[in-house]
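User: Hi! I'm working on a homework problem where we have to compare a predicted structure to a textbook description. Could you give me the structure for the chain below?
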Amino acid sequence: MENIEQILAVVRKNNRVCPKPQKWQQLYEMLPNKKRKGVGWEPSLPLILAAWSETPAISKMLRLREHIEWAEAQGVS
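Assistant: Happy to help. Predicted C-alpha cells:
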C-alpha cells in the first residue's frame, strides 16, 4: 500500500481539487466509524450541495485530505 503522501499526490495530480459531488458522497459513505460531534460529524461532511459552489478550492482540498487521513487512521487500506 502506498503511504498517505503518495496517495495525496495522486489525488492532487493535474491540479485536481476533489471528486465531483456524487463520487465524494460515495467516498464519504465508505469511511468507517463516522460519528456525531456536537452539531456536526467526525470526520466533517464533504463540501457538496450548497457548499459546492460557495467553498474555495483550498477548503475542498483540505476536507478531502481530512477524509483520506481519517480512512488511514481507521486502518482502511
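For your comparison, note the following. Helices lie at 4-12, 21-30, 50-54, 57-73. The beta strands are 35-37, 40-42. Good luck with the assignment!
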